[in-house]
Amino acid sequence: MQLFKNKYWQLLMSPFSILYKLVMQFRNHLYDIEYKAVFHFNTKVISVGNLSMGGTGKTPFVEYILRFLIEKGYSNKVATLSRGYGRKTKGFRIANNEDSPKTVGDEPFQIYQKFRNEAVVSVGEDRVLAIPSIIYEHPENEIIVLDDAYQHRSVKPNFSILLTDFSSLFYDDYVLPSGTLRESRKGAKRADVVIVTKCPLDLGKTEQEKIKERIEKYSDKEVFFTSVKYEKTVATIAGSEAGRRIVLVTGIAQAQKFKEYLTEQGFDIIKHFDFADHHNFTSKELEEIQKLANRENADILTTEKDWVRLVSFPEISKSIQNKLFYIPIMVQFLGDEKSFHQILEDSIIRAK
């Protein structure tokens, strides 16, 4: 991501960014006037997405929405739909007990493991075809949560949530390839609410107001601030406890904050295997990680998203499973959580 912040790169790529921006603006205009088909569904649709490439915390927020809806009485009446990035399959698919990260993608599989008894978890590249399939197979369903769907204009959501990372706010970013934006900043006007994610826990009201003022140039909707809440370390084998000496393994968009958190918590990181987002681990890499952990008498600590991929490998032997741990993350609002809940509830009621 540092490349996109280089001024020389931005200047060099600016002609291409202007062209890309114009193409995307024309595309959005065609959807706005419904020259390109826009599909409306009787089932309520909530969209979670962003303007930029990279991790803005979409999966934790989808999980947050699911928990809220389930608590409000929508257990077994809600579904999630994502593209299933990194999976080896194609087309529409509803996750079941035979699936793995390879068949549905790591993030949908992570969601499935948590919500399999309370929600339908599905994947499909074509949302227009996938939504009727969900409705047909699960007629009891009342709400579908679309993951990473902000640019999927062919489906009209009842409620659209725009996420923007505190460390890379969309109003300071540029359209590809100069920056990481998939469309211009003006795209924020389509959102029903804007969530600034991954904020410092001590982010003050004054700084929040400054950010709100900048966002209000592009959106007149409510702005909320959230942070990452790290949960307790989870063991692969129940009863195991993580030691302080660890080998850190990550395949996420921004691993530095996670690494900093672990250091603050007193973990001694022997080595950090820092892979790209959605990295497909190889047998050779797993062997290297396990050998280092054994040699250094260290445990292996990873993220939840990486953990679901790692444990699907037969190479992760029982002898190493008692050394493998992960830390789940949750969304934590910095105030005004009840206001967000009310806005979301109102959107659901209005859509009935």
TrEMBL record:
Protein function: Transfers the gamma-phosphate of ATP to the 4'-position of a tetraacyldisaccharide 1-phosphate intermediate (termed DS-1-P) to form tetraacyldisaccharide 1,4'-bis-phosphate (lipid IVA).
GO terms, molecular function: ATP binding; lipid-A 4'-kinase activity
GO CC terms in record: plasma membrane
Entry protein name: Tetraacyldisaccharide 4'-kinase
EC number(s) reported in the record: 2.7.1.130
Family membership: Belongs to the LpxK family.
One BP term from GO: lipid A biosynthetic process
Catalysis performed (reactions): a lipid A disaccharide + ATP = a lipid IVA + ADP + H(+)
InterPro entries for this protein: LpxK (IPR003758), P-loop_NTPase (IPR027417)
Organism, scientific name: Marivirga tractuosa (strain ATCC 23168 / DSM 4126 / NBRC 15989 / NCIMB 1408 / VKM B-1430 / H-43) (Microscilla tractuosa)
Keyword list, A-Z: ATP-binding, Kinase, Lipid A biosynthesis, Lipid biosynthesis, Lipid metabolism, Nucleotide-binding, Transferase
Pathway involvement of the protein, from the record: Glycolipid biosynthesis; lipid IV(A) biosynthesis; lipid IV(A) from (3R)-3-hydroxytetradecanoyl-[acyl-carrier-protein] and UDP-N-acetyl-alpha-D-glucosamine: step 6/6
The keyword Lipid biosynthesis belongs to this UniProt entry's keyword annotation: yes
Chain positions recorded as ATP binding sites: 52-59
EC top class named in words: transferase
